[in-house]
Amino acid sequence: MKHTITLTENDYLTHQLYEASTNPIRRSRRNRSYIFIVVCLVICTFGSSTGDRIGFYVVAAVTAAAILFGKQYFRWRYKKHYARHVRTTYKGFFDQPVEIEINEETIRTASKTGETTTKISEINQVSEIPNHFLITISTGDQMIIPKSTPALNEEIIQLARREHILFLDEKDWKWN
User: Fold this and answer.
1) Cα–Cα distance for residue pair 146/7, rounded to 1 Å
2) How far from 93 is each of 9, 113, 135, 139, 142, CA to CA, in Å?
C-alpha cells in the first residue's frame, strides 16, 4: 500500500536528538563537557578561597549555578546546535512529499531526489518514539516516518512482528 508523508524540520531535529541521546559516544561526550566545566569551577572556587573574599563568593556562586543548572544549559545548547545542523544540512528536504510503499520483500521510498528500495532483510530495528518510527537499516542509516498516517503506523508494527525485527518501544522518550 502506498502512503504519502511530509517530513518537517522538526521531524529531522527529533531524529538528530534521538540519535544523540541513544548513541553512547555522543552521550559520554556531552557528560564529559559538563563534568569538565564543573571540575574547573570547583578548582577555581578552592583556588580563590586563599585571597579575595568577594572573588571567592562570586566563583562559588557560579560553581553552584553550574552544578544546579548546567545540565539544562547543555541540553538547551545541544538542541540549538542540532537545530542549526538540521537547518543547514537538510534545508531542501523540508515539507516535501515522500511516497512510501511497503511490499513483502522491500520498502520503496520516492521523493524529489529519487527512489530508494530497501530490502526488508536489511532492517536491523524499528524504534517507536512518541511521534515517529525510526527504521534502522544495516548500513546505520535511519528512515524517519512520522506517525501521521494510522494505516502506515499499523503496517510498520505488523512488518516488525512478521519479519521478527527488533522493535524498541520508546514512546516515553524525550530529549534529555
Assistant:
1) 7
2) 8, 9, 18, 21, 15
pLDDT tens readout for residues 6-49: 999 999 999 999 998 887 777 777 777 777 777 777 777 676 66
Write the pLDDT tens digit of every residue in 122-157.
Answer: 999 999 999 999 999 999 899 999 999 999 999 999
Q: Which DSSP letter does residue 122 get?
A: G
Which three-class secondary structure state does DSSP give residue 93?
coil
SS3 assignment, position 174: coil
Residues 6 or more apart whose Cβ sits within 8 Å of residue 132: 11, 14, 15, 18, 144, 145, 146, 147
Task: Please name which of 8, 5, 170, 173 lies closest in space to residue 83, comparing C-alpha atoms.
Answer: 8
